[in-house]
Specification:
This protein is of the alpha+beta class. It is about 40% helix and about 15% strand. Strand 1 and strand 2 form a beta hairpin. The longest helix has 22 residues. The structure holds protoporphyrin IX containing FE and iron/sulfur cluster (SF4).
Amino acid sequence: MYQYTDFDRAFIQARADQYRDQLTRWQAGELKEDEFRPLRLQNGWYVQRHAPMLRVAVPYGELSTAQVRVLAKIAREFDQPSPELLQEAQAKQDLLGAAPSRLTTGYAHFTTRQNVQFNWIPLDKSAEVMDLLAGVHMHGIQTSGNCIRNITSDELAGIAVDEIADPRPFGEILRQWSTLHPEFAFLPRKFKIAIAGAQEDRAAVAWHDVGLYVVHNAEGALGFKVLVGGGMGRTPVIGTVIREFLPWQEILNYLEAVVRVYNRWGRRDNIYKARIKILVKAEGQRYIDEVESEYRQILEQDGGQHTLTQAELDRVRASFVPPTLKLEHPSGEAKIAAMLQAAAEDDPEFGRWLKQNVAPHQNPALRAVTLSFKRLGQAPGDATADQLDVVAELADTFSAGEVRVTHDQNLLLPWVRFEQLPEVWRAAKALGLARSNVRLLTDMIACPGGDFCALANARSIPIAEMITERFQDMDELHDLGEIDLHISGCINSCGHHHSGHIGILGVDKDGKEWYQVSLGGADGSHLSGAAVAGKVVGPSFAATEVADVLEAILDVYRQERQAGETFVQTLRRAGHEPFKAAANSARQATARAEA
Ligand code: HEM
Ligand code: SF4
């Protein structure tokens, strides 16, 4: 994984020291509230519905076990409100309606963009937490504000069998360029970059402000397909391809032009129109022409100062150090495969886990194992302090001390020896982390919604919980097959509802929580085809109706599917109408039953 340089370490510690000073001055009344606010935000400290919320970056989703243990310590010792605050917050939640909220404390929440959030840390402990994080080279710099945010990538980067080139060194070059970039510290709005280096897109690249796919051109040279202006929110837009091929050497010069023109032309007068997607939509070719002209100027007049050399790429590549593993198998891989096959036939639960939670690896002696953080009683992406500690133990024992954060809010062990899969399975199962639901219906994405977020229109977590409760039968889940269910608590779309095969969006009508359902969206993977926004099925549903509506939609799939078809394939072939009709009649049936 990435080896931090002395510069990285010193920089992060200096930022933590600076923040401690800012906090102390605010506490002493030397900094006013509105002076301190931007300073804490620049370090990932928000204030949300009940308490401060800290967002910490996990570049490329990579965590060492030392880092995981620090996250566990923070969850255990700092993600703890006073009993009075917790009681007050719970009372607030109890007023919200039918679906109960169960506020919990002492955990970390993994997000879709390879960040980790804490919901309860008191601000007066924030400097202490920053020091703990800095001790393991972690921070919240640029995890908030109108700047270039944490650059995300494929959770299988560097190990995926379908990889064209490892995207992490390019991501790291972009991180170094965008961190504290003086020109881009105050953009019109937040700016998110994702980069994928494989055939399959596991990073929702087309939904980003800038999306980069590593590609080869016809001559075999390495470069990027560049997309600009993707984003969700109120107006879902898929990124526009503005370069089919850009040589990798020019990525910084080119992105400098992309972001500079946005910085110059982006709408600062209206927060709803400030994202780059609106500019690209409004200006179209004019924006692209301006970027190309700016790019030419950077190359010709400014001498292409950021053109990358092979030596620089090699330097950064060398910071991604693969673990040294002893990999000879005395019995040989074919024998291990046969042993696993026999074990899977003996125990279908193990077989399902192998199918859903285990991915192939560039090294045939290894596998990548997803630990499922989707289960009853826990919000999607939440990990308690104890769970984090056991994940660290698992990773130390079986995965060369490395863990990764996935786009779907799970954790992954990237370096598991093929023959150790039965042992990993038993250990993960004993810890409740081996549910074989990866990519299935209950492996859903959900934002914190109205349980924690001050911007929410409705809660997401109780809806996720009701659905998880309804779909506990693993036979049913496996029969339904791969389905992306995404839930957001408001139109800001943090839970990616637009890109869900099934999307659920919380809306507020007369102060009450309602849920809009959309169908047919896609992140843009090989299964679901190109990225696309789902279509709303009709007026919104009450919280208590959502699970029935989902059931009705899935019944249509069960009736309509042809052999081998996934949910989204049937939906595309059969059209939305039967699904829409079933969803709406489920609403009426529930309403009648309740009347
Ligand atoms: C409670 C804390 C959070 C707050 C206050 C918050 C706020 C926001 C806002 C205001 C936007 C829209 C920006 C815009 O379109 O101009 C946004 C976008 C986004 N958030 Fe969050 N968010 C929070 C937590 C999360 C979490 C936990 C996740 C992941 C699970 C997440 C993932 C995203 C993503 C991916 C987008 C981009 C959507 C797009 O492309 O438009 N956020 N967030
Ligand atoms: S989608 Fe809305 S409710 Fe959910 S975290 Fe984002 S801003 Fe909050």
